[in-house]
Design a protein that fits this description.
The protein is of the alpha+beta class. It has one domain: Alpha-Beta Complex (Nucleoside Triphosphate Pyrophosphohydrolase). 26% of the residues lie in helices and 26% in strands. Strands 1, 2, 3, 4, 8, 9 and 10 form a seven-stranded mixed beta sheet that branches. The protein has a three-stranded mixed beta sheet with strand order 5-7-6. Strands 11-12 form a two-stranded antiparallel ribbon. It is globular, with a radius of gyration of 18 Å.
């Protein structure tokens, strides 16, 4: 595996509690590659601004040394959490932050217009996330976010990502709104229902999306899932690099531990 060709990325399974369990936010990508017309989770590549050492001063509950240890990195781990926050705000308007005095933001009420403007300016690269934190005296709520899985794009693809998946609990007083450009649809859905729709073709997905949904389906609450993921070390979340072969004109994938004797819909990359 040529690590030099891999693009670091962060993807977020945003979760919320409902009366009879838990839901995850799924979004549908536009026709623009990669992942065109697929249902995925919010996320994207790590930007240079995500690596700014100054933003660590605005991160509540986590520093770079701690974040790097959680991901098994020598340094730079905090940039993945920062990317999670930025991507969620850009793509679906959810901001994992509080005021420095601990007060929740209210992005459904009187602060909505102001933060909608910040979101637009962030997307257009007029400002960065640290600028917003300084201007509004915010702390990014890193403890609401936990590592979940680690996937590496297979060698058959020309553009390859080294993607860390994270679980993140929806903050109070916030409602998602997809950007309408990169994302054309968004839906809160129970993981089991999402899997059913994936298997019957209603919601097309790739293997990592499906596998991450399967990891969620047996949890009854956000607190239960977050607590479990927070206690894991980097060795508990090893990188997954699928291997692929062609059968009946379609690509099928093998996960680590597969013997190649069985394939199914969940093993189809695209």
């Amino acid at each position: 595996m040529n690590k030099l060709s891999l693009i670091p990325a962060a993807t977020v399974l945003m979760i919320r509690d409902i009366d009879d369990g838990m839901e995850v936010l799924m979004v549908k990508r536009s026709k623009k590659p990669p992942f065109e017309n697929l249902f995925v989770f919010p996320g994207g590549k790590i930007d240079e601004a995500d690596k700014d050492i100054n933003i660590s001063n605005s991160c509540d509950g986590l520093n770079d040394q701690e974040a790097s240890k959680k991901l098994g990195l020598s340094h730079g781990g905090l940039s993945y959490w920062v990317a999670c926050v930025r991507e969620c705000f850009e793509e679906v308007g959810i901001l994992f932050a509080k005021k420095s005095n601990g007060e929740d933001l209210d992005l459904t009420g009187f602060e909505k217009e102001k933060y909608d403007n910040y979101r637009d300016r962030l997307i257009s690269n007029e400002i960065n996330l640290y600028d917003i934190c300084i201007k509004e005296d915010l702390k990014l709520t890193m403890l609401n976010i936990a590592p979940f899985s680690h996937w590496i794009t297979p060698n058959i693809e020309t553009k390859r990502f080294d993607t860390r998946f994270f679980i993140a609990h929806l903050p109070n007083n916030q409602i998602e709104k997809h950007d309408g450009t990169e994302l054309t649809h968004s839906v809160w859905i129970n993981p089991k229902e999402a899997l059913e729709k994936a298997f019957n073709g209603e919601m097309p997905m790739i293997m990592p999306t499906i596998k991450n949904l399967q990891k969620c389906e047996n949890y009854n609450s956000c607190a239960e899932l977050l607590k479990y993921q927070h206690q894991l070390s980097s060795s508990d979340i090893p990188p997954i690099l699928p291997k692929f072969f062609k059968k009946d004109g379609r690509w099928h994938g093998l996960l680590p531990g597969d013997d190649g004797t069985k394939t199914s819909k969940i093993h189809i990359w695209n």
